[in-house]
Design goal:
The protein is of the alpha/beta class. Helices cover about 35% and strands about 15% of the residues. It contains nine helices and seven strands; from the N terminus they run αααβαβαβαβαβααββ. Strand 4, helix 7 and strand 5 form a beta-alpha-beta unit. Helix 1 crosses helix 2 and helix 1 packs across helix 3.
């Protein structure tokens, strides 16, 4: 099946290729046996370009943040977050939004009571379905076709069996820096409107400096050439999520609980200005 994905949607193929590469490592932080087939040749080509930029074959010192190590840390961080969340017997709903080529429904050990709602555009879900073939999920998996930026979410989610009155956990992975600020606020408003108090949320986001930093410039030129530039950054992710009713913590890769020894760069304290940063955000919807 030829991929019929737009530029932003194709970033999920890069993520799958990164996960396939991580799975081949002896010191891997997780194992994703589905990632290689989900990435396909196109994902492998995207990864080859990123790898040459971030880890040059000629031994030239790396001049940009390590996308390879970040993706490994991010994936394991959110794996742990999700499994910890569903250890609570009251939590039965997980929403992966957008799901892209994510295979967590096929590779993680979910409790039998859990439903996993995989939200993404129809073209992405179609490519994923084709590439997974006859693979069987390890959980009650429910695809939900919608455009997270343009569509109203309630109808498709409710039709898939989602209960907004019951606790849920939401993962917004690899999304917020690719959409405009107004769309970020709409997305977070949708999540709040569809979650019961006490529900959990997680995601990743960059800071504003990352959009213009000399250290990220080469990487962002590649993304822009592919047609998927970074559009939004938040210097205070806690305040951003608080505005929409979520109390969250934000960890930088390499900090305690968000590194597992893989982050290759120094962790610069947040008080220091003019430093590009990425945050792994996790927390809970407040009461009321």
């Amino acid at each position: 099946m030829t991929t019929d994905l737009d530029a932003v949607e194709k970033t999920c193929l890069l993520t799958a290729a990164l996960r396939a590469a991580e799975t081949r490592r002896a010191d891997r932080l997780y194992e994703d046996p589905f990632a290689e087939r989900l990435a396909g040749g196109e994902g492998a080509d995207l990864l080859a370009e990123i790898t040459e930029l971030t880890h040059p074959a000629d031994g030239t010192p790396r001049r940009v943040p390590s996308t390879i190590d970040y993706n490994a840390i991010r994936t394991r961080f959110f794996d742990d977050f999700l499994l910890s969340a569903v250890a609570d017997p009251a939590l039965t709903q997980v929403v992966l939004a957008p799901v892209g080529m994510d295979a967590r429904a096929y590779r993680l050990g979910w409790p039998p009571r859990v439903r996993v709602f995989e939200v993404d555009r129809p073209a992405v879900l179609a490519v994923k379905h084709h590439r997974l073939g006859d693979a069987l999920p390890l959980v009650d998996r429910r695809p939900v076709e919608l455009d997270m930026v343009e569509d109203d979410w309630a109808g498709p989610l409710l039709a898939a069996g989602y209960d907004p009155a019951a606790p849920s956990v939401w993962l917004l992975e690899g999304l917020l820096y690719y959409i405009p600020e107004a769309a970020v606020h709409r997305v977070l408003d949708h999540v709040r409107s569809l979650t019961a108090p006490g529900s959990l949320v997680a995601g990743d986001i960059v800071n504003a400096v990352s959009l213009s930093s000399p250290r990220t410039a080469a990487l962002l030129r590649v993304f822009a050439r592919w047609g998927c530039p970074w559009l939004f950054g938040a210097d205070d992710p806690e305040a951003l999520f608080d505005r929409h009713g979520f109390a969250v913590d934000a960890a930088q890769p390499g900090e305690e609980g968000a590194g597992r020894g893989r982050w290759p760069d120094p962790v610069v304290p947040r008080a220091q200005p003019d430093v590009e940063r990425v945050f792994l955000v996790s927390g809970r919807r407040r009461e009321g």
